[in-house]
Every structure is written in C-alpha cells, then in structure tokens.
Write a structure and sequence with these properties.
Layout: E1 9-15, H1 27-30, E2 38-43, E3 46-52, E4 66-72, E5 82-84, E6 91-93, H2 96-138, H3 152-159, H4 167-184
Parallel strand pairs: 2-4
Antiparallel strand pairs: 1-4, 2-3, 5-6
Length: 185
C-alpha cells in the first residue's frame, strides 16, 4: 500500500566438486546430484529451504554442481517477495521482478561457469576412459597355467558321480582321495 521496505537480498552462487572425503559428516549432501542442486533460501542466517529451483530450470546433469544461496534479513520480505511453507520444505519467489533479476544472474552464471565446468569434466572423463581403454588393451594377458600332468586326485574327483553319492560313499571317496594325495607327496 505504498509502504517502502528497505531490505537487501544477497545472491551467492558456486559450483561444487564431488566430496573427496567420505569421512565427512554428510558426504551425500556434498556430492553433486539432481536432488541437491539448487538454491538455499536463508533468512537471518537460518536456512529456510534448500535444493530449490524456483521454476528457473529443469533438473539435469549439467546443473548438478550448482549451489546458490539467496540470503536476506528480517521478516519484511516474507509474503511480499518470498513464500515458504510451514514445514520449510518448499519455497517460492512470489515477486516477478525479483524472480526475473535472480534468474538473469543465474542464467549468466550457468552460461559462464556451470556449463563450461561441466563440459570440461566430461572432456577429462572421456580422456580418462580412452586412456584406460588403451592401457587395458596394451596390458599383457596373464598366461594360462600349463598342466603338465593330471594328478591322480583330480582324475579320481572327476570320476565321482556327485548326484548319486550317498553319505557313506562320500566318506569312502574322501578316504581314498586322502590316500592318493599322500601317495603323490
């Protein structure tokens, strides 16, 4: 109603790398994924919602590394600029002008930072796969052991009809195999 609200909104964006340290407290949250990409909405240094896209883009592989923080102080912007549900699982930017400004900044960041880093990672991964394929093809194949003489124990084992052997016969076979093994030395 003509009242002026003098508040600032801070926008911070970054690209994260995959968590290298699995002993960290929440390694899954630190790894890029479609479930964790997006914005965190922070009011008075308290996160109200995370992994929000605000209908600015559709989840996809290139954006997995994107994390952004929209930070503001006070509660004057609630209901005018931002709307957060009571369970703090969903948030929206209800002011079209603010939404457009943030989306414009995000588009530039995606174009200049997120997509080039994604393409660079893909190129490195492709090169690593090609190098691994070449090294694998050049690696000497392990030679199969040459059997010089078939052991009497092996010949006797191959001759046993396992499907029709009774428990008593199995013990007899074991006794015979033990004697053959001892005889071979």
């Amino acid at each position: 109603y003509g009242n002026k609200i003098d508040e600032k909104i801070y926008v911070q964006m970054s690209c994260i790398k995959k968590a290298e340290n699995p002993t960290r407290t929440h390694p899954k949250l630190q790894s890029p994924s479609q479930q964790t990409q997006g914005w965190s909405l922070v009011r008075n240094d308290r996160e109200l919602a995370n992994a929000q896209k605000f209908n600015m883009w559709t989840s996809s592989q290139p954006q997995n590394n994107f994390r952004g923080v929209i930070r503001y102080n006070g509660e004057h912007l609630d209901g005018h600029i931002f709307d957060v549900n009571i369970s703090k699982t969903q948030a929206s930017i209800i002011n079209k002008e603010v939404w457009s400004k943030i989306d414009k900044i995000r588009l530039e960041y995606f174009k200049n930072e997120v997509l080039p880093r994604y393409e660079q990672t893909r190129a490195v991964n492709r090169q690593n796969r090609e190098t691994k394929a070449v090294l694998t093809s050049l690696a000497p194949k392990p030679a199969r052991p040459v059997v010089k003489k078939t052991s009497a124990v092996i010949l006797r084992l191959n001759a046993i009809d396992m499907d029709n052997t009774t428990l008593k016969q199995a013990f007899e076979h074991l006794t015979q195999l033990k004697m053959l093994a001892n005889a071979e030395g």
